[in-house]
Automatic annotation (TrEMBL):
Keyword Magnesium: no
Compositionally biased region (Basic and acidic residues): 68-77
Sequence ranges of Acidic residues compositional bias: 150-160
Residue ranges, annotated region (Disordered): 68-91, 127-160
Protein name: Uncharacterized protein
Residues making up the signal peptide according to the UniProt record: 1-19
Biased composition, class Basic residues, residue ranges: 128-141
Keyword terms: Signal
């Protein structure tokens, strides 16, 4: 009987854990996501308000282009005949969107900010290529903690 009650409790706890609402980008509008991205970049790169607004606009354009591309891909998935060609074409279009975004960022940021952003962007790309979602979350938390500790070290060193 104890085994069954323990099993029942474990099943219940599992159901509760999976029923939790997901947080993050999934439930946000494009405008909210663009604002979050601009805030994140602004806090790490010390942007002016003008740069921050331009980054928000560039991110909104990028999100819109990606959303259109994904909708198009969804339609094409229904017609799965020329899948290899479509996949290559989609990859090329995604790369173009990414290159355009990088060009926008380079025109908005100064050289030092762009170098920092490029480094930050590369770290995010490494995280995205992680094999497990849990690993990505751990890497993200570790990266944020590392960045915060570096920032606080920089702040402390200026007072010495």
């Amino acid at each position: 009987m104890k085994k069954y009650s323990l099993l029942l409790v474990m099943v219940f706890m599992t159901m509760v854990a999976f029923a939790q609402e997901k947080k993050g980008w999934e439930k946000k509008s494009s405008d909210e996501m663009a604002m979050m991205y601009a805030e994140k970049v602004s806090s790490k790169l010390s942007l002016t308000s003008e740069q921050k607004e331009k980054i928000k606009e560039a991110q909104m354009k990028r999100l819109k282009d990606q959303k259109e591309l994904m909708a198009k891909r969804k339609d094409q998935m229904a017609d799965a005949e020329d899948m290899a060609d479509q996949t290559a074409d989609m990859k090329e279009k995604r790369m173009k969107i990414q290159e355009d975004f990088k060009d926008d960022m380079q025109s908005i940021l100064n050289e030092e900010q762009y170098a920092k952003w490029e480094n930050m962007h590369q770290e995010e790309m490494k995280m995205m290529k992680g094999k497990h979602k849990g690993d990505k979350m751990k890497m993200h938390k570790m990266k944020d903690q590392k960045m915060e500790s570096e920032d606080s070290d920089d702040d402390n060193s200026s007072w010495k």
